[in-house]
Structure to design on (134 residues):
């Protein structure tokens, strides 16, 4: 599809895409950016909320979360090239390792992380209001 819309100008250079293609690409990325922004911001918001309610330091909690995100990215960027070359240059081995790591992380998260404290029941709040009001 992109090849059929490619244009070459009089100097032989590739001309920019038509306006419709630019608008379509910009619209697609704008719509896809909304869930991506949520994906980037929600973990940090939840970490600050949970660390604040538990009495832990927010800075330390956010720093640990940031390291938990950055260190695996650095390991993958350094090791994925040689890992792919070891298996003939395809990306499939790296995806298999990623899938195994994601499954292991899910199991660890469900078994090792502490559960957040339960919410205060609404009936308890209502009973304290009724005893304090005449």
């Amino acid at each position: 599809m992109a090849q059929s819309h490619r244009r070459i100008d009089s100097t032989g250079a590739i001309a920019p895409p038509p306006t419709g293609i630019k608008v379509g690409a910009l619209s697609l990325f704008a719509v896809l950016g909304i869930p991506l922004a949520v994906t980037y911001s929600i973990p940090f918001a939840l970490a600050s909320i949970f660390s604040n309610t538990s009495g832990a330091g927010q800075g330390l909690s956010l720093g640990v979360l940031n390291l938990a995100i950055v260190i695996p990215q650095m390991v993958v960027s350094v090791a994925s090239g040689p890992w792919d070359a070891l298996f003939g240059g395809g990306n499939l081995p790296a995806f298999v390792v990623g899938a195994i790591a994601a499954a292991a992380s899910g199991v660890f998260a469900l078994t090792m992380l502490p559960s957040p404290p339960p919410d205060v029941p609404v009936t308890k709040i209502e009973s304290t209001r009724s005893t304090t009001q005449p």
The helical segments are 2-5, 19-54, 58-86, 92-112, 122-132. The mean pLDDT is 80. Residues 57-115 form one domain. The CA atoms of residues 51 and 60 lie 9 Å apart.
